[in-house]
Amino acid sequence: MEHADVNVVYSVQHQLPLVMYIGQYFFFTGLSAGSFVISVIATLLGRKEFKPIGKITALLAPCLLIIAPLNLILDLEQPLRFWHLFLFYNWTSPITYGSFLLTAYPIMGIIYAVMVYTNRQNAAKILGILGIPLAISVHGYTGFILALAKARALWNTAAMPTIFLVSAMVSGIGLVVIIAAVRWKWFDKKADKETREGDKKLILQLAQFMAYVIMLDLFLILSDILVLLTAHSDAFEAGMLILTGNFAPLFVGVEIIMGSILPIILVLGPKSRKSLSAAVVASILVNIGVYAMRFVMVIGGQTIPLS
Amino acid sequence: MVIDIRRCIACHACTVACKAEMSVPLEVNTTWLKIVEKGTFPDVRRFWIPRLCNNCTDAICARNCPTQATYKRDDGIVVVDQHRCIGCKYCIASCPYDVRYINPLKNIVQKCYFCSHRVDAGLVPACVESCPTRAMVFGDKNDSKSEVAQLLAANATVVIKKEMQTDPQVFYINADETAMSNIENDNHYYTEGALIKLKI
């Protein structure tokens, strides 16, 4: 570097503003958005074999989205003042979009789940179509929260909302695969052999779909890193921080190798592609990888000093 | 505000005066001095730069604050309404200058307000008042008779991170580029003397 022989004798850095509550919130909204999208796809296709998955995911989405904002409120320094978000809103702040989206989306999700469970197909389809943009904005805005905090080079990229959306899909599908497999193994014993075979096939198909979404996610991460490494000095530092610096074990090891490449091999590999347990293991790995990604993004993004 | 580094002697008087005036708790600083050493022995030189909130004209913190707790006064000073701040810390994450912090006693976000209470009373900020060499000059840069406007007209000035498009209102004369930048050396993530608390 230009000034390699510089020592910082004294400067002040304040403590990390955003802690892992925020990362957990990103993780839970991601799971929720992903499972909602899967549910709507299942409802829209309207085929009989998709029904169990459609039902599980319709219930999962609002449940997860009730847990997620609790993380946000816990992160506030003044949790009892959270209602200020609705009273003194500021339209230029991404958090404001979020606070309204986070109110509208679970309500819609609960109505949708009621429609799915009471078998009102048409109403469920309409709500599902209306809900997909809502689900996408609920998770897309979390990407905007990071991207619009322009001080932090690791966050300040246009790819951030898309990366968040795609990784949300990945983790959401992973969760659905795990839960559907648990249901198949222990709660689906009474069904006839044909239905069970069909269910197993469906879970494996879902796992394969997950592998393709992981490939898209890997491409987005690759392009993000390539641009970081060729952009300005802060961005270069951010890229090196996650490639070779303190966050490399989590990013390269857990997120990329363990959480993306290994699941793809498990799900698409010729030996394990018909195995349900391989799909479940892949889904668990994927979720660990996505959680690590949230950690790297939230904590890693703030590690480079600004003063 | 104009800070003339040619006059600054790195005495930390501004830091101490600010701490006393604004009751800044331990662990955090509203105003401080950043000091770097450049070169290898025996060709070494030390550079420093007083740091404080730039009270940007296009303040990213005010734009991103979800509750309008951070807002700009008519005279351009960016302030935090401590009864409205919910402590979401998004402004701290967005600020390119790392001058905002959580007050550990009050649990709200705080920063430098150019001592707005003193300015309202017709005084200058505490750091300017205490500066023994008059390196810090405060005033209205649009008033051509003010010392600030004259200094800005007669000297080459720089601001920190101009590329952030925030239009900072703290101008430096003769500041060292490396001292202003946040990328100093390869292992700067845990700089000496700096306080990093990993609260995960």
Walk me through the topology.
The complex is a heterodimer of chains A (307) and B (200).
Chain A: E1 6-10, H1 20-45, H2 51-75, H3 84-87, H4 94-117, H5 121-147, H6 160-187, H7 193-230, H8 233-243, H9 248-268, H10 276-303
Helix pairs in contact in A: 1-2, 1-5, 1-6, 1-10, 2-4, 4-5, 5-6, 6-7, 6-10, 7-8, 7-9, 7-10, 8-9, 9-10
Chain B: E1 2-4, H1 13-22, E2 32-38, E3 45-51, H2 60-64, E4 70-72, E5 78-80, H3 90-94, E6 101-102, E7 109-110, H4 116-120, H5 126-130, E8 136-137, H6 147-154, E9 157-158, E10 171-173, H7 177-180
Parallel strand pairs in B: 1-10
Antiparallel strand pairs in B: 1-8, 2-3, 4-5, 6-7, 9-10
Write up what this structure looks like.
- The complex is a heterodimer of chains A (307) and B (200).
- With 307 residues, chain A is mainly α.
- Helix content of chain A is 76%, strand content 2%.
- Chain A has ten helices and one strand.
- Chain A is globular, with a radius of gyration of 21 Å.
- The two termini of chain A are 18 Å apart.
- The relative contact order of chain A is 0.13.
- The model of chain A has no long low-confidence stretch (mean pLDDT 88).
- Chain B is α+β, with helices and mostly antiparallel strands.
- Chain B is built from seven helices and ten strands.
- In chain B, a hairpin with a 6-residue loop joins strand 6 and strand 7.
- The longest helix of chain B is centred in the N-terminal third of the chain and has 10 residues.
- The relative contact order of chain B is 0.22.
- Classes of the chains: A mainly alpha (307), B alpha+beta (200).
- At the A-B interface, strand 1, helix 3, helix 4, helix 8 and helix 10 of A face strand 2, helix 2, helix 3 and strand 6 of B.
